[in-house]
Amino acid sequence: MARLSRRSVAGVGIGAAGLAGAALAGRVLVRRRLPAPEARTASVLPGVVRERRLEMGDGAILRVLEAGAPEGGGKLPVVLLHGITLGADIWHRQLADLASAGHRVVAYDMRGHGGSDARQLTFERLAADLVEVLSQLALERVVLVGHSMGGMVAIKALASDPLTAKGGGRVAALGLVATSASPVSGSGVPGARVVARALQPVMARTAWLTARLPGPTLPKSELAYLLARANFGVDPDPAEVALTQQLVTGVRAHVTGELVVEILRFDDLVALEAVDLPATVVVGTRDVVTPARHGRALAGAIGGAELVILKGCGHMVMNERPHELAAAITALAARAAGT
Fold it and tell me: Regarding predicted confidence, which is higher, 197 or 128?
């Protein structure tokens, strides 16, 4: 039970906050170099990245970042979905790298994160937002890439639209990065699914109580930095850890709590068997939030999916291995375009 709670429930529930131990604390604090407060804004390359607001059908406003030429230079556009307690800024490397490779790149703050409104915090609504963003930005045949909870939202969107899942909609290819289709029950431990489902009401109640708390998900403290660091693998850039910390501490506790309830309920691996799209799954061997076995399960469920395993990489693939991730996404786009 301890193993299941540590790796499959707590890790996903906390999301970008992660787990940290005393041994890690001493090593991380010695290496810590926090960037200046303006570093987060600078990291998304002003002048290269454009920012706008989109209004959804229910009146909610979402903050959207775009990079690259609107016409995309003939290459497929890429849409990036972030994980719980993060935001569009977490993709700053990919916004620059993929735009430089000739793609139009879009990332947006999902509800409750960054500069987007916090209302109707359900996976159904987040999936509906995705459809609306694609429509409002006139994005056709996109490479859809989701990290952690963003990958779950992408799976939810495809599961609710069989035509798109078969390649007949706006999504031309699917990239799943450090994510899971069954975060609670997919631990790989014999009997874990039964145990997890038995514990689900208790875990959901705990998350619901968290959703009633005022204030941020995590306070701005040394502990918050350590928890953010635990999502990374071997020897990360301290500035990237600090960016993760800044994003996490900017999300309200009630947003995290409500979305954790959604994550605890999510179990949609079977839906991926109906996906008939070029797909790539990227996992890190040091990921304690969504361990590599979750990625292997995703790749196994999607026929013909490519599995990319990054040795020593943790949960924050986009910050730890930006060049490898960009290469995987551009190769996926080329496959989808038939080039």
Answer: 128
Looking at residue 19, what is its pLDDT? Answer: 28
Q: 269 to each of 230, 265, 275, 298, 299, how far by Cα in Å?
A: 27, 12, 11, 7, 10
CATH of the domain at 40: 3.40.50.1820
CA–CA–CA angle 266, 156, 309 (5° rounding):
80
| pLDDT 10s digits, 36-89 | 333 333 344 555 789 999 999 999 999 999 999 887 668 999 999 999 999 999
Would you state the structure tokens that stand for residue 20, as one six-digit string? Answer: 């940290």
Domain total of the chain: 1
Range of the domain at 187: 2-337
> What is the per-residue pLDDT across 246-281, written as a single tens digit (0 to 9) for each?
999 889 888 888 898 888 889 889 999 999 999 999
Paired tokens of 138: 């006139």
How far apart (Å, rounded) are the C-alpha atoms in residues 8 and 290?
7
List beta partners, residue 113.
none
d(CA 247, CA 108): 13
Residue type, 111: R
- Provide the 8-state DSSP code for 188: -
- Give the CA angle between residues 212, 216, 222 to the nearest 5°: 135
Cα separation, 174 vs 282, in Å, equals 11
Task: Report the C-alpha gap between 156 and 136 in whole angstroms.
Answer: 20
Distance CA 228, CA 232 (A): 8
